[in-house]
Amino acid sequence: MAERLSADARKQALSGIPGWAELGGREAIGKTFVFKDFNEAFGFMTRAALVAEKMDHHPEWRNVYKTVEVVLATHDAGGVTARDIELAKAMNAIAKLTPT
Amino acid sequence: MAERLSADARKQALSGIPGWAELGGREAIGKTFVFKDFNEAFGFMTRAALVAEKMDHHPEWRNVYKTVEVVLATHDAGGVTARDIELAKAMNAIAKLTPT
């Protein structure tokens, strides 16, 4: 099982994934992605969903038209783990290819 | 443009779409769908996204693993319109085909 990252390790990991930040009141990381329109936003979600399913590690996310708010945490570990960082990196890579 | 439904018209329309209810504090309707797993939940979202895009009328929705919380409202009309009822019906029809 992936181990919960310490506050220092979280901070260091976050420095490598632009746009992601720690959530207030909860050990989790989040980012709001904004795209060109619903087509691009849902396209991003679909590609991210395939990655998440393959990792067997799923996001909490909310979509309103061209916006996708994502929260990542590892429930079993009670915090943020390397799996969240990995998924966050993958989402950034997908978003880079998606028109905004 | 679709016209905002009156409270009576909303109530009557809701009686025909099981599981949908008016939201507190906001003129909108909502339903929480629960499926078997992420695959089924995201499959539902994908089919619903295609319908929404075709209608050019999009949901606000949140997905956590096998759960999809949907809120529908027509922003331009400042409330619930026939388009929301139509999308809600389509979502119920899609969910019926999706294992829970």
Automatic annotation (TrEMBL), chains A, B:
<comment type="similarity">
    <text>Belongs to the pterin-4-alpha-carbinolamine dehydratase family.</text>
</comment>
<dbReference type="GO" id="GO:0006729">
    <property type="term" value="P:tetrahydrobiopterin biosynthetic process"/>
</dbReference>
<dbReference type="InterPro" id="IPR036428">
    <property type="entry name" value="PCD_sf"/>
</dbReference>
<keyword id="KW-0456">Lyase</keyword>
<dbReference type="Pfam" id="PF01329">
    <property type="entry name" value="Pterin_4a"/>
</dbReference>
<dbReference type="GO" id="GO:0008124">
    <property type="term" value="F:4-alpha-hydroxytetrahydrobiopterin dehydratase activity"/>
</dbReference>
<dbReference type="InterPro" id="IPR001533">
    <property type="entry name" value="Pterin_deHydtase"/>
</dbReference>
<protein>
    <recommendedName>
        <fullName>Putative pterin-4-alpha-carbinolamine dehydratase</fullName>
        <ecNumber>4.2.1.96</ecNumber>
    </recommendedName>
</protein>
